[in-house]
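Q: What structure does this chain adopt?
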Amino acid sequence: RYIKQKTGQNFLSILTGIRISHAAKLLISTDLKNYEVAERVGIHDERYFGQVFKKTYGMTPSQFRKTRRKETDVERLIKDEDEK
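A:
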């Protein structure tokens, strides 16, 4: 009740948000399969993981990985050019 009172969210919502945020980082920075990412963040149902992830980010984990990796590669190239 205290958490709900202070944050407006229940504990499970906060925990799920943290898990999905960490999953996003893993999707960008590793080559783990989606089900492996889900398990690493404590979600043992891959289908549920995909649903919650899509609700949070507006795209599937696979789409997120492809999109963000391209963005990261472009940012890295720009940074490398700026350093030269």
